[in-house]
Amino acid sequence: MKARGLYLSIGVALLCATVAAQQQQQGAPQDPAAARGGRGGGQPAPNGPRVYIRAGLKTHGAGQHDYPQFLADWSKILTERNAVVDGSLHFPKPEELANVDVMVMYKGDAGGMTPEEKATLEAYLKRGGGLVSFHDTLCGPDPTYYSTIVGGAKKHGEVNYTLEADIPYTIADKSNPIMEGMSDFTIKDEAFFLITWAQSPKIHVLANATIADTPSAKGHAGELVPQIWTYETTFAGGTQPYRAFVWMQGHNYTNFADPKIQPMILKGIAWAAKRPYDALMTVRPARGRSSGN
After folding, report:
1. What digits encode the pLDDT tens for the residues 182-192?
2. How confident is the model at residue 58, as a pLDDT?
3. Nearest in space to 203 (alpha carbons), one of 243, 257, 157
4. What stretches in the chain show pLDDT beneath 70?
5. I want to staple 96 with a disulfide (CB 3.0 to 4.6 A). Which of 58, 92, 169, 216 is the partner?
6. Contact call for residues 110 and 138 (beta carbons, < 8 A)
7. Which domain CATH number covers 231?
């Protein structure tokens, strides 16, 4: 019986080897996904930016600070534009950032990190990994430190916000491709002031906004404060520079879908990933249907 079992195992192994050899000779891939171009339906594998979305638990009322919904919606938006997308509601592990071009962050108080998380972020920046920061992502306990990461930061627990108000943008750099085609406009959201700014280098301002006269902005109404910017530097000990793009709004979640805002965000993500500005501007064609369907 043992001999029969041995002969049977050898026979199966030889059969598998023969089929594999025939497939290679005929050019037939052994991996079904490869036969479909790696994506299904004959579509090629994506070659866009590799994106990690760092979101968090929802912290505000309906329609505000909807970090989990952002993770769901923008995973789809970016994937449709040929990006390779991963993400979670936790701080990423080093292995999760290993091949990432840009980490897109929409999570309250992301400036607060454990020593291990801080080390992971710094290692990522040292190799040139990009960052995108929305709304109160730039808030934390140590704005002096975090401002050197994204260019500007605000202190957690300090009254440095307008609450919901008009945000009248004045475009500061109309020639920048991220702001292409944009002129001064206003949205309803939340603006920040009392920002700690990086000094060496300084941010590159893309748009400012005048602080609205709200109860929480007492003493700061009328100030002109950057709300959209880019920041590029090399982290101490790094091998290449990294890029950060910041949009300080996003309090009201619907603004992510604003036709004036969304293209700017897509170009900002592409720039931070060190890809062409228009790398995420084209939606991949939908999977084709077979004739007769």
Report:
1. 999 999 999 99
2. 87
3. 243
4. 1-45, 287-293
5. 92
6. yes
7. 3.40.50.880
Structural domain range at position 253: 50-157+225-272
Q: What are 284's two structure tokens?
A: 């991949």
* Tokens standing for residue 28: 């037939």
Distance between CA 250 and CA 136 in Å, rounded? 8
Tokens of 137: 């992502």
Structural domain contains residue 208: no
- Domain count within the chain: 1
User: Tell me: the pLDDT tens digits for 267-284?
Assistant: 999 999 999 999 999 998
- Alpha-carbon gap, residue 221 to 26, rounded angstroms: 73
Report helix, strand or coil for 49.
coil
Cβ pair 269, 280 in contact under 8 A: yes
Domain presence at residue 185: no
Distance, CA of 41 to CA of 46 (rounded, Å): 13
Contact 280, 49 (CB under 8 A): yes
> Contact 255/261 with Cβ under 8 angstroms?
yes
Specify if 86 maps to a domain: yes
Hunting for tokens 């730039």 — which residue is that? 138
Q: Could you tell me if residue 183 is inside a domain?
A: no
- Report the pLDDT value the prediction gives residue 235, as an integer from 0 to 100: 97
